[in-house]
Amino acid sequence: MSVTTPEVPQEGAPSATATLRSGSLGTADIAFFVVSAAAPLTVMAGVAPLAISLGGIGAPVGYLLAGITLAVFAVGFTTMSRHIRSGGAFYAFITRGLGRPVGIGAALLALVGYTGMEIGVYGLLATATQDTVQALFGADVPWLPISLAGLLLIGYGGYRSIDFGAKVLGVLLVAETGILVLLAGGVLVRGGAHGLSAASLAPAHVLVPGTAAVLAFAFAAFTGFESTVIYRREARAPERTVPRATYLAVGFLGLFYAFIVWVVIQAFGNEEVVRAAGEDPSGLFFTAITVYVGGWAADLMHVLIVTSVIASLLAFHNAINRYALALAEEGVLPRQLGRIHSRHGSPYVAGIAQTVLGAVVVLGFWAAGADPYGQLLLWVNTPGMLGLLLLQLLAAVAVPCYFRRVRHQEGALRTLVAPITATVLLATAIVLVVSHIDLFTGASPTVNTLLVVVAPAVFAVGLALAWWLRVRRPQLYADFAAEPAEPAE
After folding, report:
1. Which end of the chain, N or C, is less packed with Cβ atoms under 10 Å?
2. Please, which residues bridge with residue 66 across strands?
3. pTM
4. Per-residue confidence at 266, pLDDT binned at 50, 70, 90?
């Protein structure tokens, strides 16, 4: 329930002293936020065909390997979450392990990274809705009103209570995964195009040059899974629910992605699927579900891709609001952004600011005549994705550094072996993504270079901000990412 102070003048009035709704979210609720941010249906229908066309029928293993890597990262990450109670998530972990300058750089990188991941997706919402309207009604609609309507809808969802958002995401997530399960059922019942095959797991089909590109796409498909710790202050028994939700999200995404990619390979056949994916990547899943389930299911899939994008936007919006809230409480961002609604228990001012910023960016791209998918989505989303991968790498490095300095009873596997292994694997993932950045953007080398340098540039600005704070506002600097005086409820 919402907790307010006695000074609140009336029910539902905004308050600077209201708090987040502690104890609102269970394991499943937090997992819904994380998995919804990944947008499984959109990732599968929109991106997996490209992975198949580049990596061949061994593509499912790429998703498994990405999932295993992030599960290894989660071992140290969730172990440290039992010791860090701050609402700052990544930047709090990194600060405690690597020091305040790196932590402040990470805080700025997290805010910009998550913001980029959300705002860019308004371009995807526009194109997905346009495709759906065209497929169902044969009509063309302009993209700007769709994006602006999405901004208002997501802004309202973030304004409401966190448990309201969890319920909405639960429904949407069940729907989008349900249509993929329906496709899988149709393919399995009919035995695929030429019978079911395990050839995708054979080393000869996995150890091919295209697997590097598949891994780049696969790591991008998990973006946002680490946001479980952002909801610590609103979780029930966070020392248990946060780790459980993290493992549940990573495990589900890794296995589900690999299974669905394998299923669509069976739908076309090992020999035919690579050609089909190359000729019509955007239509691969729609063709498969039309053949194995029916045209009505393809129409439903069109609609559910739109709702999948909406769910992803709401999940990222809520995560950004809580990062902004934490940084406002730190004093790094204006204190006004830390105001919480007394009835809904939501960081509503941060949400309004995020919605306004999104509108400015969307209108700017529209005024410049940009393409909503090729530019708004890809040019804004890609730096955000790279920023979050860099945050994961810094967090992995922070874990053994933190446990080396504090007294604890955790084992070496969790505090040393797993995080060091994750560091190596995540560094490899970043190299793969950067070296295949043209596959994500389709842009010129100049544009790609600019997109790649955004994340390190933001981090560098954060380091400069840390220096300025240490000199000009030493008390704020000294208190940055400090542990709360009382344990979170």
Report:
1. N
2. none
3. 0.84
4. very high
Can you tell me whether residue 14 is helix, strand or coil? strand
Q: How does residue 61 score in pLDDT terms, banded at 50, 70 and 90? A: very high
Where do we find the tokens 């540039």? 457
Number of Cβ within a 10 Å radius of residue 182: 17
- Contact between residue 89 and residue 246 where contact means Cβ atoms under 8 Å apart: no
Beta carbons of 131 and 290 less than 8 angstroms apart: no
- Amino acid at position 369, single letter: G
**3-state DSSP assignment of residue 471:** helix
**Can you tell me the distance from the alpha carbon of 54 to that of 274, in angstroms, rounded to the nearest whole number?**
8
Token pair for residue 208?
């091919």
Judge contact between 298 and 182, C-beta under 8 A.
no
- What are the two backbone dihedrals, phi and then psi, of residue 25, each rounded to the nearest 5 degrees? -115, 130
CA–CA dist 256, 276 (Å, integer): 22
User: What letters, b where the CB count within 10 A reaches 16 and e where it falls short, cover 432-458?
Assistant: bbbebbebbbebeeebbeebbebbeeb
Which CATH number applies to 14-479? 1.20.1740.10
DSSP E strand boundaries for 109-247: none
- The helix-helix angle for 238-268 and 284-292 (nearest 10°) equals 80
On whether the CB atoms of residues 390 and 430 are closer than 8 A, the answer is: yes
Cβ neighbours of residue 459 under 8 Å, at least 6 residues apart? 105, 106, 108, 109, 390
Mean pLDDT of the chain: 85
Q: Are 341 and 160 in contact (CB under 8 A)?
A: no
Mean per-residue pLDDT for 408-427?
A: 90
Are 454 and 68 contacting, i.e. CB atoms less than 8 angstroms apart?
no
Helix (H, G, I), strand (E, B) or coil at 4: coil
CA–CA separation, 55 vs 207, rounded Å? 9
Token pair of 278 as six digits: 């190359």
Contact 121, 310 (CB under 8 A): no
- Give the residue carrying structure tokens 């769709």: 146
Cβ neighbours around 334 below 10 Å, total: 13
Q: Which two tokens stand for residue 34?
A: 């994380």
- DSSP 3-state of 341: strand
Q: Which amino acid is at 106?
A: A
* CB contact at 8 A, 41 and 180: yes
Q: What is the pLDDT of residues 17-55, one digit of tens each?
A: 566 556 667 788 778 777 877 778 888 888 888 889 888
Please report which residue ranges of 269-338 form alpha helices under DSSP H: 273-279, 284-292, 295-330
Average pLDDT over every residue of 94-105? 92
Residue with tokens 């084992």: 411
Listed ranges 26-30, 39-43, 103-107, 244-248; the one with the highest mean pLDDT? 103-107
